[in-house]
Write a structure and sequence with these properties.
Helix content is 41%, strand content 11%. It is an alpha+beta fold and 167 residues long. The relative contact order is 0.13.
C-alpha cells in the first residue's frame, strides 16, 4: 500500500490526539501514531497535530525533524538499513554501505533514494556478534562478506537488491 498524503482535517488524527488527552507530553507518541496512519508526517498532518494539541507548529515540526525515526517525506517502496555501529564498522559496514550506494545508485541517508530504494545508516541493530549486518525490507542479513566484492554482491542479489549501476 502506498502511503497517501492526509487531508488537512483528518478525523483519525483528531482521534489519536483525543486518546492522549491533547497533552503536550504525549507529542512524540501522537507523532508516532500519525506516522503509522500515513507512512510519514506530511505538512498537513503536522498542522493538524499542532492545532489539535494547541501547540506551536514550530514545536511540533521541531520534534518531528529532530528524531530520525520520523519521516517528513513519503517512504520509498524498499528500504535498506546498514549498521555503522562500532562492531559493524570495524568488520566492514562502511564498505557494505558504499557497495549498496554504488549498486542501487542512491546516496546513504537520502530518504528519497531513487524513488524506489533508500539506504540509511543506523548506529546499532543489536546483532554485533554477527557483524556486519544489514536490514533489507525488514529482513536481517548477517555476517555479510566484504571481500571479495563478488561475494557481497551475491548476498545482495539474494536479498533482492537490483544492480542499477555498473561496477
Amino acid at each position: 500500500m502506498t502511503p497517501s498524503a492526509p487531508s488537512s482535517t483528518d478525523p483519525r488524527i483528531t482521534l489519536v490526539i483525543r486518546r492522549h488527552g491533547a497533552r503536550a507530553d504525549a507529542l512524540i507518541e501522537v507523532l508516532h501514531q500519525v506516522q503509522e496512519l500515513h507512512g510519514y508526517l506530511a505538512p498537513e498532518s503536522l498542522r493538524d497535530v499542532a492545532t489539535g494539541m494547541r501547540l506551536p507548529l514550530s514545536r511540533v515540526h521541531g520534534v518531528a525533524s529532530f528524531y530520525h525515526l520520523f519521516r517528513l517525506e513519503p517512504p520509498t517502496a524498499h528500504r535498506c538499513a546498514v549498521c555503522l555501529g562500532t562492531a559493524c564498522y570495524v568488520k566492514g559496514g562502511a564498505q557494505v554501505a558504499a557497495r549498496i550506494e554504488q549498486r542501487l545508485g542512491v546516496s546513504l541517508d537520502d530518504p528519497a533514494g531513487d524513488g524506489v530504494w533508500a539506504l540509511q545508516h543506523v548506529s546499532c541493530l543489536g546483532a554485533c556478534g554477527q557483524a556486519p549486518v544489514l536490514v533489507v525490507d525488514g529482513e536481517l542479513m548477517t555476517r555479510l562478506p566484504v571481500d571479495p566484492p563478488e561475494a557481497l554482491d551475491a548476498r545482495l542479489e539474494t536479498a533482492g537488491l537490483p544492480q542499477r549501476t555498473t561496477t
